[in-house]
Amino acid sequence: MDHELFRQEAHKMVDWIADYYQNIEQYPVKAQCKPGWVYSRIPADPPLEPEEMDTVFSDFKDIIVPGMTHWQHPSFFAYFPANNSFPSILAEMLTSALGAQCMKWETSPAATELEEAVMQWLRKMTGLPERFEGVIQDSASTSTLCAILSARERFTQFGSNSNGLHATPVMRVYCSGEAHSSIEKAVKIAGIGKDNLVKIGMDEAFRMDPALLEQAIAGDIKLGYHPLCVVAALGTTGPTSVDPLPEIAAVCNKYNIWLHVDAAFSGSTLILPEFRWMIEGIEHVDSLVFNPHKWLFTNFDCSAYFVKDSETLINTFKLVPEYLKTQIPEHVNDYSNWGIQLGRRFRALKLWFVIRSFGIKGLQEKLRAQMAVAQELKTWVTEHPDFELMAPVLFNLVCFRFHPSDLNDEVSLDKLNELLLLKVNGSGSMYISHTRLNSKYTLRLQNGQTHVERQHVVKAWDKILEDAYAIYPSELSKL
Fold it and tell me: Which of 8-22, 80-94, 327-341 has the lowest mean pLDDT?
């Protein structure tokens, strides 16, 4: 492919992208194909001779697109937002074109220095203290692992990196029962063991109970364990509950425990002054992560990880073999020493494009508008005699279930709501997900996609009502 052919093909694909977003509501939100459908259409052997790009692109449209769930669809209400925006797409195109390996300052000075500047922007936008320094990781899962590894090395004075864990006491990590599963994965990878992840009880709003946390820590100390790290959540995975940070921070400060804050989903709301209450006590926090790729219109992957003591983070990961040594002064940031991967993408460019294109006010307006619609949906649920709100609505997520007034058997209610989920999602017109709260099957609807508007949530609520009464009581009686 020469320069001119590349230009022609690129124009075709940009036109397709623009058409895709213009007509995205014509697609079923959730992929409607059956398992194996895409695989069966891929030749068993790769081509021996070159193929025309027109043929490749045609297969993309005919085979790949029908097998995609369209996360950018305004009626995608499942899981969490993974939103995108045109400025982010444009920046990603340029990032791919540059093809830079941004592991060190010397390998791409602009990538390093833009990342430093943009993370300072984010720190100011979210009200974090000046002492916090930021780095872009690929995901909150990686960020949480970095926090736990840093806590481990601080406790062992970097001895576990050198000698392993055989001589250390049993270390314990604490989180609530609603915390993200990545914490369990992190303690496994870090060599701490999932049996040493202690799930702390919660209050009626699904927030970690600080009194139970301190009780668990004190009990572990008596047993000879070492309390290593507490992970508090600002927006848990299921109901987006907010753990009481000041009280948790006080406990961690008392026992000298690393406090990591997982704000992956909801941390973007810290750009709104009215949500800064969530980070009261932040001066006692060691690290915090939130994902612009979840709710700040920057496409995956872009996870903002802030740490109070960057020296501990760097010393946890720094490794400079001969082939990476340079004559560059020590004061520059080599971000490959700030995390797990040596290789790093130029993620800061798309975040820079997004912040500049929207402006702080534009970002704030979109978040506020989406949360206002969620509050409307909350009202529709609470005022309906056959629906039940299952958790407080703090952000853009509403947890609810179908609960007909004449049905009170919990097993039947679980089955009914599972049937409702399957019917709604099977239509292709919208997509929601579920969780369990207090062991009850709960439907989740988040409206955080970039192009979602009130009309899409109204349409979704109407569809839920229509399908609910289509399956009850006739379909439930068949089970």
Answer: 327-341
Rounded CA separation 299/354 (Å): 10
Residue 20 lies in a domain: yes
What pLDDT shows up at residue 478? 60
Q: In terms of domains, do 18 and 120 share one?
A: no
Is it the case that residue 330 has pLDDT exceeding 90? no
Q: Is there a single domain that holds both residue 292 and residue 367? A: no
Rounded-to-integer distance, Cα 183 and Cα 262, Å: 10
In a domain, 388, yes or no: yes
Specify whether 116 is located in the same domain as 223.
yes
Nearest residue to 244 (alpha-carbon basis) of 273, 271, 212: 212
The CATH number linked to 460 is 3.90.1150.170
Tell me the β-bridge partners of 431.
76
DSSP collapsed to 3 states, 173-224: EEEECCCCCHHHHHHHHCCCCHHHEEEECECCCCCECHHHHHHHHHHHHHCC
Would you state the pLDDT for residue 322?
44
Q: How far is CA 108 from CA 28, 99, 127, 341, in A?
A: 41, 11, 29, 16
Question: Which tens digit of pLDDT belongs to each residue from 217-259?
Answer: 999 999 999 999 999 999 988 899 999 999 999 999 999 999 9
**What range defines the domain where residue 423 resides?**
1-30+69-84+360-479
**Whether residues 165 and 295 fall in one domain:** yes
Per the listing, tokens 């501990």 go with 312
